[in-house]
Fold this protein.
Amino acid sequence: METKVDWFECVRKNKDIESSGLNNDFIYFFDKFRKAVADSSILLVGTGSTELMFTEWPRILKVLGAKNITYLELFDGYISKFSNREYKIVKGDVKKIDEYFEKNKFDIVCWFHGPEHIKQKEMPQTFSKIKGLVSKGLVSICPFGSYYADAGTEENVYELHLQPDMVVSDFDSVVGLDFFSVGEKDTADAVIIGYYFGGIYG
Ligand SMILES: C[S@@+](CC[C@H](N)C(=O)[O-])C[C@H]1O[C@@H](n2cnc3c(N)ncnc32)[C@H](O)[C@@H]1O
């Protein structure tokens, strides 16, 4: 069966996941995600450059019951653009996330469209630092393949894809998380999702 899916839309519109064509890995993940997000404090890594990027994940998370949302962002231009808005922004590098927040300050860290912006060898320690902070879990999303390889702005070096063609096996050295792909490699909607949920959420 054609696996190209717009899982983002599926979540956004809160459609019936089972009938959407999404794979079993996604259905299994999403059930845990939905339960964990309810009533949670969430840290989102990366505001993105546009109004839509800044507001869309928070909107989805709130639909799923998130209690409050904070951003971590490294690029000064985006921090000034979105300062004094509805979500607090902390300046910092996700690779040093443990330097900015105490353990359990956030229930969940969502690092969406992020791992492609750091080096492969930096991923194990970064994921481990995130995992050490959260009370419920963490979720990451990155492109599956090279569709967005050339994405990035001259304005923001942090938007460059230091990993331009990601596949699930790139995460082999990241321990304690499950990774799976959704969609057909190298297409616009194809993503790799990684997650960890602990305790009753696992
Ligand atoms: C492709 S955008 C994704 C934006 C948003 N999370 C989304 O899913 O639409 C990547 C964002 O991560 C930020 N970023 C890149 N490297 C980072 C790092 N090491 N620490 C924190 N933020 C970083 C970029 O500046 C940008 O805002």
About this structure: Residues 1-5 have pLDDT under 50 and may be disordered. The first helix runs from residue 7 to 12.
